[in-house]
Structures are given as C-alpha cells and as structure tokens.
Amino acid sequence: MTQPLLGFLAFAVGTVVVLTVPVLAVWLVVHLVKGLTFVAGGAAKGVGYGIRHVARFVRGTVVDSLQFGGSIVTAAVVLPLAVANGAIGRFRAARHYGAALEDELTGALAALYRVGLGHPVRFLGLGALTDGLERRLPDLVEREPRTADARRRASRARVARFDEEPTFEGYTVQSELQAGGSGARLFLATPTADHANLLASRGLDVPSRVVIKAFDRGYGSTIPQIVRESRSLEAAKRLGLILEHAVDDDAFHYVMPFVPGEDLDATTRTLHARSSGDGLDARSLSAVLGYARDLCDHLDRFHGEGLWHKDIKPSNLMVADGRLHVVDFGLVTPLESALTLTTHGTEFFRDPELVRLALAGRRVKDVDGVKFDLYSAGAVLYSMVENSFPAHGSLSSITKPAPEALRWIVRRSMADVDKRYASAREMARDLDVLLAAKDPYTVRPADLPSIRGDASIPPSRPGATTVASPAPGLGGSDRADDLHGAAASDDAQGDANDVRRFSAFGMTAEVHGLGRIKESIHGVREDRRRKRAERTAQRHRDAAAAREAKHEARAARRRKRRGVMGAVLTLAVFVGIAGGAGTWIYSARQGHSVFEGHASYDGHGGYEGHHADPASRAYPVLAAPATPPGYPAPPKQYAPAAETWSFHASVETTLLQLGDSARVLVLTDENDRGATRDARSAAQRLQALGIQPVGVALGPGGTLSRREVELLGDARYEIEQARGSVGGALDRLEAFADDQPMIDAILWLDRPEPNGYLQTKLAIEDFGGIRQLDVRPAQGTCASEDACSADSAWTSSCSTKSEACATSPRIQQ
Amino acid sequence: MHDLTTSFIGRLRARDGQAWFELWEIFGPVLRAQLARWGRGRIGFETVQDLSQDTMVALASAIDRHDPSRGARFSTWLLAIAKYTLGDEMDRRGALKRGGGVKPVALDGVDGLEPGSTKASPDAAYELEVFDAKVEAALRRLEREAEMLDFETFRMRVLEGQSGRSVAEALGTSEPTVSRRLARARTRLQDLLFDVFARFSFTDEEWAEMDRNGLGRVPNKTEDASFDDAVAEIYGRISARRASEAAAHARRGD
C-alpha cells in the first residue's frame, strides 16, 4: 500500500519538476533578454544623447562665432556713419545709426559670451552655473536707464510737424503721436486738475496721462471714418477703454488712458535678440506664453460683451509692466451687427475666409466673429514664436524651436473655422497647461485640454460616463479609441466592456463598473490638477508682472539719478569715447521706441487706401470680375471726391446707413449733356462714403443684359417724361430691385425744368417696396456754372435758381 | 480638356465670385512674383499689387474669348495676360514721361501677348511656381476638408518629417492610428490634387506634370513614400519662397 503511494508521489513530483523547470527556464531567459534589451536601449539612448549634446555644442559655437563676426563687421560699417552724422549736425540720423551700433555691439558681446563661456559650460553639464548670469545680464542691459530729456525731445519734434496745435477742453496737450490710417490725429495729453476731479467724481479711474484720438474734417477725416469710430464708442466705454468723448459738426474726439511701453512687434524682436538666436530661450518663451494668455483674456472680455475686435495684430498690442494691453478698437464691431461684412483688417493677421465671406456679401451677424479674432490671436502667437508674420496663412511652418504643444495651439487657432477653438477661454486653457509646466517642451499636444476633450468635467448625472468626448472638429473617433478603448462607445457598449474578470482557484469573479469608478476618480484628479495649474499660472503671471513693475520703478529712479551722467556720456560719444556711447545711444533708441509704440494706436484703414494692407485694396477691384452675369460692372475708380460736392444731409445719412460696400445703382438722364458730369460727381461722392456705385455707364457697351437694359430704359424714359415725379417708373425700378438683390438702393440724378437744378432721388428697398426718400437739390450744384461764384457757400434754404447760384460754389469738375 | 476645367471656365465666364476668388487666392502670389521679376526693380511693390489686380480684371474679359481648342497651357494663358497688363503699364509710363507718343516696351516672348497663344516662353521659375501653387491649393483644401487630427498627422509626419513614433507620442495615440490617419489624408490629398490639376490644366502636358512629379495616385507602400517625399519637397520649396517674401516684406518695413 505504501509502495504504490510513494511511487505515485514520486511520479507526481517528477512530473511537476519536469513541467516547472522548463517554464522557469523560459521565464528566466525572457527576463534576461528583457533586461539586456533595457540596458542596450539605455546605452543607445545615452549614446544618442551624447551625440546630440556634442552636435548642439558644435552648432551653437559655429553659429555664434559667425554671428559675432557678422556683428563686428556691421558695427565697423555703422560706427563711421554715426560719428559722421553727429559731426555734421544730423543728430537724428546719428541717433538712428547709434541705435543700430548698440544693437550690433550688444549682439556681438552676447555671441562672444556664449562662445567663450555659455556653450562650453553647458557642454560640461554645468548649465546651472551660468543660468543666473544669462537670465539677469540681458535684463540689466535691456533696462539700462535713459534720460527723460530724450523722450521730451522726440515728442517736441513730433508736435512741430503741424502748424496748429489743437486744444481740448480739460486737457493739456503735451505732444503728438504718430497716427495710423484712420484719418485721425493722436495726442498725448494730461488732464487738468479740475477736469481730473470732475472725471473722478463720475467714478472714473483717472490716469495721469491720456491719449486723445481726434477726427476733424480739416485733418482730412471723412464722415465714414468718423461714423465707423463712433459706432464702437459705447462698447469701448463699457470695456473701460475710453474715458469720454465729444462731438460737433465737423470734429469728433475721444479720450483713452495712455498705455506706456512698446508694441508687441518691438517686444518680440527684443525677446528673440536676447535669446541665443535659434528660437526663444526659456524665459522669453514664458513671456510669450504670458502675453498670449493676456490676449486671450482681453478677447474673452470683448466677446463676452458681444464685440468683435477685428484688428488683432502685434502693432495694436502694447506691452507694459510685463502685461499685454489691447490699445486700438477702431474696427470693433458688435457680433450681432446687421451691417454687411467688410474686408477691413490686416493681411496675414486676418483670416482669408473673412475676405471670401465679405465678397459674398454676408452680414456680420451671419458669421462667427469670435473665430476670426481667434485666428488673429493664433497669427499673433505665431509671430511671437517665429519673429515673422504667417506669410503662408494656416500652412505657415514654424521653423524656430518651439514646444510641440505650442505649435498645436497656433495651428488650432488658425485652422479652418469649424475646427478652430470655439472661444478664447478654450485657447487660454491650453495655454495654461504650458504656463504651468516646468518645461513646456515636455508638454504634448495630447496633454492639452482641447485635445483631451471634456475629461476634466465630472459626470453631470449618476452613471454618466466621464470618458473624454473628442473635441469637436478634431475627428476623434480613433482618438477616443486610442485613449480610452471601448469605453468611448455608447452606454450599452460601455456596460458590456466595463467588466473586469478575476480568476482564482478555478473560480471567476466579474466586477462591473470598475472602469467608470476609475474614470470618475481620474476626472476629479484632472479637475484638481487643472485648477492647480490655473492657480500656478496666475501666480507666475502676477510674479512676472510684479518683477517687471519693480524693474520699471528701479529704472525710473535711475533715470532721474543719471540725467546729468547721460548728458556727459552723450558728449563723450561725440568725442569718440566708446565707453560713453552706450548710454547716449540707448537713450536715443528708447525715445524712438516710444514713438513707435504709439504708432500702433491706429492701424486700420478704409477704402481710401490709407491702410498698410495691400490686399484690402485688392478686393474691391477683385470684386469686379466677381459680378454675377448681367450685373452692371463697377465703374472705374475715380480720383477722391471733391470735399465741396455732397448730397443733401438726409440722403447722406441714409446712404451711410446702408453700410460699407453697399451697392447703389445710379441712373441719369442720358438726354442731358451734363448728366455724365453729374454721374461722375455722384460716383465720386458715393465712393468717398464707402459705397459702391454701379450702372453709371448704361449706354451702348454696358454690361446689363438686354432685358434689364430694356427695363431700365423704359423706367428712365418714364422718369424723364415725369420730370420730377417718379410715378409708374418706381414700379419698374421696384421690379428691377426685386430681381437684383445686390442693389441696395437706386439713385436717380435729374435736372428737371423749369429751373434746371440737379435733383437727387434716392430709393431704397424697404421690405418689399421702394420708398422714395428725398427729392431735393444736391448740395453745391446748379444748372449754370457761369452764374455761380467760386467761394460762396450753399444754403439749403435756396428756392430759386438765382438764389441757389448766388450762394452756391462752382461745380467741381 | 478635362470636364472639371471646362466647368470651372464656365463658372468664371458666369462671373461666379467664388471661382474668381479661388483663382485669385491660388495664383495671385504667382502673378505678383512674376510681375516683380519682370519689373526688374523698375516697378515698386504697390504697383505690382495693382498690376496683379489688373491682370485679374484682364482675365475677366479674356475668359469670354478663351478658345480651349488652341491648346495653350493654363500657365501660358495666365502669363500672356500678365505680360499684356505689364506692357500696358509700361506703355502708359512711357507715354506719361514723353508727354505723348507711346513707345513699345521690349518684352521677351512678345508673340505670346495674345491670350491663348502658344508662343509665349515662360521661364522655368514661373512654371515651377504655377505647379507649386496648384499643390498648395490642394494642401489648403486638404486642411479645410480633412479632420484636424488627420491633417495634423499628415503635417507632422510628411511636411515636418517627424517619425511615426514621435507623432504618435505627441498626439497621444498609437502608431497604427498614425498610419491609418496618414493613409486617409494621403488618399484625400491625391483626390484633391487630381481635382486641382484637372481644373487648372488646359493641355495634356500640364496634366501629366502631376504624375511626372510623383503626385499621381499610387498603388503601393513604396510609392506612398515617394509621394510623401514629393509633397514634402514641394512644401519645403513653397515655405522657402514665402519666407523670402516675408523677409523682403519686413525689409520694406510695411
């Protein structure tokens, strides 16, 4: 009995040993191989890192050596120019060259430092040793004090450009700033003590200095420009961008707080200059992220107030005290405006889609203005990273080193409208993640909230899944699968998949809903993490702002102390003492930067072609071939309308209400020899009002279809016969307008007997019917030029030919 | 001529605003570059802008007279009208300077001034720009029409040359998903390239350029890599050109 049992036991043990030993051997081999692979992988990574490290060192050294050589050569060329200009008394030119010389020498010294110390120390792995020096030294150089005199000199020079210095009640004008293309003048002023008290009594926060933006027809401002600016007044007041405004018959001005500092273009150049030349260093990158975050905050405020800024670009953004400020709101438009969309804005910072929609005649309320502001914000972010504008639109490549997640943010904000961020807040959330990261380069696009979807939002009802719903427009079916497996499908599928099976001792236990519990916990954690990141980002921004303010205050104190020293050093430059050059040159350069900074107050323009954006002039002309078949071709662009020729005030008001780019059909009496001249003057005036005149040339060779020519011919004939009463012709015109949705109004020019005065009749489409608005003489015209005096003023009360002629200016040809 | 070409010309003739805008968006930069080259510094940036608009206006009138049976290339047709516009401008300047008589301007390939003529001899740089503009148009449409993650995968993998693994890591996805997205974007791009080339090619020779440059529809993985390389090379060329334009823009200070 015992023997068989022992035999069985021996057999069993032997079997177990025979089965176990190979399994153990295989397990051992597998782990050995894994270990070896791990070691080999680590070694390969180490070698790769070493090679990259050496390559970085070599590349950095070569690049900086070349930069040093280039800077020295350039400085050698610029120095004689600076000295020679100073010697012959061309002080502004000398300052200009001096500023360039300073830039070159600063660049050369920085390159020399990097070659001699920075790169070798980093190569030895001792980068932390030079970190403080690299961080503080450029900052100190950047903040080298300047004399207050330089600023005053620059301001005085600018005011001297105009003969007449304007006055504004309650303010003392200090200087004039560089104006943009809106037809306005900009003045730097201080409120008088009484006025400051008055404003304070209204609960306003009164700054010590203000900027006054003044429009006056005497300056060349036009009514459309004034109307466009005045539209945004109330909105700007709500946002605290303006303090007050005043308007009279010919002039209009408003007062804004003065934002000191330099525009974002200048700041970007500085940030790139102080980095090593190949992208932004960590500190500059952090500053860029902070500015982008500030911009999102501003845009969020605008959009929250129902406003579309429409002209976000670096020169409209000012950096002061380490924070970004939006300073221009000349194109601000209510998001729900019923006006027709215009192409205003700046090329490269304006979404091309906006132009397409404007050419298609869409109205503002029919498009999502928020998305277009976000495109501009993305373009601004691109320009900060790349130190250039996105010449290739959304396809522009980012060539400078930048965190992958930052590239993603730029692309997402410049993507097609449907795939773009939905709001500035969404973009800000992505930026917060980068701001909170110790090293932004470690953040992946996949870590951004916008790509992770709504994972951080806890379930709104019991049992609801917290699985990330892919961000809209991203095409996230695969994404959800990748991130969360089958749990991303619908509830039933989720229930089926959310099962964990545990097997032991031949038994299997199923646990349902474990995945959801984990995800809920994950969601809560994510929420906490996000809040923590937001708090950290806010802390960083506040700290940066405090640091900047502290530096600024310190610089101001030093400026005061070193006023005399600056003058001495300025003299030293003249006698060629190189040691003194820096201070003097830097003072001059700073004065110049103030000038540039305020040039950004007004960058937009209109049809008059003031704008720096060439494309905005292109589109009205481009619209010509886009005219649908049978529509009258737009007339040629005439010279600007004579200021003295205008329609009656009520007609002008109605025309302005039609909005920019409205199309007005101009009809004239072709039997009248003066009709061509009248049509020409009317077309000029319409263009000056920002309205597109059509159908001026309706003779042989016109572009209307035969049927339309007949219709208009009949209508015109009836009007001519009626001589002043529109009668049945209106019905025909109404039929024409009904068939022509792109015609916003019809303007008929006629000189009816017996007096031969020019009369204008403006008919607008009024919900299904043509409504005749006005039948009055046009201002500044009469039947006979010879009877009119050149200088007399026209009055609307004239009722006879002799009275009108006696008071009317000569017709402008 | 492909049906797409004739239908697009039909839209242009019908003064379809969107068709004209598309033409302007795609070939406006090419026209500006070519006009600037011809101007040889004698005409400024603003004039080049104006002339490129004038060329479009001239195109609007020429499109009605365009005869496809003549067999002129699309690029030649565009070039002839641009030359015609520039010639007009130079004549006008000559007339203004001399207060009267118009002096003909010496332009190379004068025979090609007539729209539709086959005798114009556009230079290689211009032809390359027209070709690149077509590819760029297809890329833009891909960006608009594809899912964002598909396009971004394509951009990172092909246009920026990142490895599949790093793309997968960046987007938090797996390498097979990257391949799947890439394949989807590539197929769509091939369709779009076909569409764009069909629209803007008047001759078989122009039409064949797509295949000749490795952008035709491809059946296998090896050819996929060639296709990606070709697209990346063209994109690099376009980016370099735009960067130099941006630098010139910055130098002008506008």
List keywords for this structure.
heterodimer; A: 813 residues; alpha+beta; five-stranded antiparallel beta sheet; five-stranded mixed beta sheet; 25 helices; extended; disordered C terminus; B: 254 residues; mainly alpha; globular
SSE topology sketch:
The complex is a heterodimer of chains A (813) and B (254).
Chain A lengths: L1 H86 L3 H33 L3 H16 L5 H12 L11 E7 L6 E8 L1 H9 L8 E7 L6 H9 L1 H6 L5 E4 L3 E7 L4 E2 H11 L7 H23 L2 E2 L8 E4 L2 E4 L6 E2 L17 H8 L9 H18 L17 H11 L9 H13 L12 H4 L24 H8 L6 H7 L1 E6 L2 E6 L1 H48 L1 H12 L3 H22 L14 H9 L26 H9 L5 E6 L6 H14 L3 E3 L11 H17 L6 H11 L5 E6 L8 E8 L2 E9 L23 H7 L6
Parallel strand pairs in A: 13-14, 13-15
Antiparallel strand pairs in A: 1-2, 2-3, 3-5, 4-5, 6-8, 7-10, 8-9, 11-12, 15-16, 16-17
Helix pairs in contact in A: 1-2, 2-3, 2-19, 4-19, 9-11, 9-13, 11-12, 12-13, 13-17, 18-19, 23-24
Chain B lengths: L2 H11 L3 H23 L5 H18 L11 H25 L25 H22 L2 H12 L4 H8 L3 H25 L4 H9 L8 H32 L2
Helix pairs in contact in B: 2-3, 2-4, 2-5, 3-4, 5-8, 5-10, 6-8, 7-8
